[in-house]
């Protein structure tokens, strides 16, 4: 089905101090709201909470557009050693 392809990348970076998670999909036309601008969905909504969880847990997150028709949503978590 068009628009359903995705790629997941998980990497430990910065000498083991950071975990980076990236999800790339082929829906570059559907960008999520910018970090810090998310609003909770209505209580009876069946979706719309994923990025709220990401924002609550991640040190940083964002969206990188392209190449067309893709986008990558990424999150970084600082690892405690």
UniProtKB/TrEMBL annotation:
Question: Which segment of the chain is annotated as a signal peptide?
Answer: none
Species for this entry: Streptomyces pacificus
Write out the biased-composition intervals (Pro residues): 32-42
Gene3D superfamilies associated with the record = Histidine kinase-like ATPase, C-terminal domain (3.30.565.10)
Protein's recorded name: Regulatory protein
Span list, region Disordered = 25-47
């Amino acid at each position: 089905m068009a628009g359903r392809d995705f790629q997941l990348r998980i990497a430990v970076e910065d000498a083991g101090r950071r975990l980076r998670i990236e999800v790339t999909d082929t829906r570059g036309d559907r960008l999520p709201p910018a970090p810090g601008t998310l609003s909770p969905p209505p209580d009876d909504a069946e979706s719309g909470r994923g990025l709220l969880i990401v924002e609550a847990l991640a040190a940083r997150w964002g969206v990188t557009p392209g190449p067309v028709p893709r986008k990558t949503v990424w999150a970084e978590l600082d690892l405690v050693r």
